Amino acid sequence: MRGKGVVAGQLIANSKNSWLEFFSHWKFFMRTSFVLWISSFVIHLASAQDSPAVFTRLSRDFFKNGEQTLLAFEPISRATRDSVVKLDLNGNTVALAAVIDASGLAVTKASEIKEGKLTAWLANGKEVDVQFFAKDDENDLALVQVNAKNLKATQWATGETSVGQWVITPGIAETPQAVGIVSVPPRKIPPPRAYLGVVLDFKSPDAKIAQVLEGLGAEAAGLKPGDVILALNDSLVDEGKQLVKTLRQFREGQAVKVRVQRGEEEFVATIKMMAPKPERGRGFDRADRMTPMGSVTSQRAEDFELAIQHDTVLQNWQCGGPLMNLDGKAVGLNIARAGRVASYALPASVLIQAIARLQTQAETTGRKTGQLKTSQPLEERQN
Questions:
Q1: Residue 346: inside a domain, yes or no?
Q2: Domain co-membership, 75 together with 115
Q3: 277 pLDDT exceeds 60?
Q4: Is residue 4 part of a domain?
Q5: Residue 140 Rama label (left phi>0; alpha psi -120 to 50; beta)
Q6: Which of 253, 272, 291 is the last residue of a domain?
Q7: Whole-angstrom Cα distance, residue 346 to residue 304?
Q8: What is the total count of domains within the chain?
Q9: Are residues 86 and 220 in the same domain?
Q10: Domain-embedded: residue 44
Q11: Are 318 and 335 in contact (CB under 8 A)?
Q12: pLDDT in tens, 316-373
């Protein structure tokens, strides 16, 4: 019996050792498998990161000004192309224009209209003569007469524009010239800085001149160091800082009248506000209006009392025409190419008032020359 017990105990011990050995091997197997799985995952992840991503590049046809994108807005352009003309000056395209009357009256960007032979291209492919009638310097607008029939007056939108809304620039073709999105609410676009051409002595209690700058208006008017400016356009000047602040309201080319004290004498001088020429001999020519991307901005791209900013990429000659919303109504008139992706448009509310003033001015000229004819008042065409 004792021998049997010993044998049974050895069997149990051997069985227990076998199970322990089995679990030991199982744990080793699982740990090894887990380590191998993690290693293979890391290697796969690393190789995936090293491999170039596979993606499909968007065709340029579907870019904002791509062919397919412009085709999506074609119905609006097709419906409004008879309200747009393309203006040529001496055979070169300089601007678009928005028709405001079926008789051929149109408005455009004034600073692009110079002396020379002015013609217009129509949606039907014909070129016709154009007469210049009136100009609004404040808004850079010109009123012209297009010698054509069957034109359609632009329909102006009555609501406000919203940031993020689509806007379309139609031309005389069925496809739009460009499309974009309103990026900034209507705001004032300040003029570029212009100067009298003096450096003030701010240690002095009054507006005393310390230096007269060469080549600017103050030098041409005969001002000298030591002169004291007493008044600007009949408004008294108490100190230099006040004078500087007031002068910021004037733009290049405007003239101001100053009352000056020199010793015991006082005199009045008229000074033309001027912008200093850039260094290195560069003037205000085409090269100075190049954006960083090499495109040309408008000759006048600043100094508007109220303008809509949108990101439409326009050529400078594509200004002067209407800017349409998705309802086919004009929210404004493109007035300036200001940067690579910044264009300005005068809001419809500003245009309606400006056009009324231009028509009054033109009708006075027309009565004298017998040339101007209109069909119906502007206010009636808004309904």
A1: yes
A2: yes
A3: yes
A4: no
A5: left
A6: 272
A7: 8
A8: 2
A9: no
A10: no
A11: no
A12: 999 999 999 999 999 999 999 998 889 999 999 999 999 999 999 888 766 444 444 4
311 and 259 inside one domain: no
Beta-ladder partners of 262: 265
**How far is residue 194's CA from residue 275's CA, in Å, rounded to a whole number?**
5
User: Which residue in 200, 172, 8 sits closest to 93, CA to CA?
Assistant: 172
CB distance 107 to 134 below 8 Å = no
> In 3-state terms, what secondary structure has residue 190?
coil
> What strands lie across the sheet with 228-232, from one edge to the other?
235-236, 228-232, 255-262, 265-272
Give me the helices (H) in 89-141, please: none
Q: Residue 8 is encoded by which pair of tokens?
A: 């049974």
Q: Read off the pLDDT band of 188 (50, 70, 90).
A: very high
pLDDT band at 296 (very low <50, low <70, confident <90, very high): confident
Is the pTM higher than 0.85? The answer reads no
Q: Which residues contact 113 (CB under 8 A, 6 or more apart)?
A: 87, 89, 94, 95, 132, 142, 144
Instruction: Return the CATH number at 93.
Output: 2.40.10.120
User: Domain containing 147: what range?
Assistant: 67-190+303-381
Alpha-carbon gap, residue 130 to 120, rounded angstroms: 6
On whether both 310 and 364 belong to a single domain, the answer is: yes
| Residue 126 neighbours by CB under 8 Å, 6+ apart | 148
Q: What is the DSSP letter of 101?
A: S
Scan for tokens 């041409």, then name that residue. 220
- For residue 177 the two structure tokens come to 């010239």
Residue 166 shares a structural domain with residue 308: yes
pLDDT in tens, 113-154: 999 999 999 999 999 999 999 999 999 999 999 999 889 999
Report the b/e string of 321-344 with b at 16+ CB within 10 A. bbbbbeebbbbbbbbbbbbeebbb
How far is it, in rounded angstroms, from Cα 70 to Cα 82?
18
Percent of the chain at pLDDT > 90 equals 64
Q: In Å, what is the CA distance from 208 to each residue of 202, 222, 230?
A: 8, 15, 9
Residue 24: inside a domain, yes or no? Answer: no
HEC readout, 142-169: EEEEECCCCCCCCCECCCCCCCCCEEEE
DSSP 379: H
Residues in the chain: 383
Q: Last residue of a domain, which of 232, 251, 272?
A: 272
- C-alpha distance from residue 148 to each of 57, 191, 363 (Å): 46, 36, 19
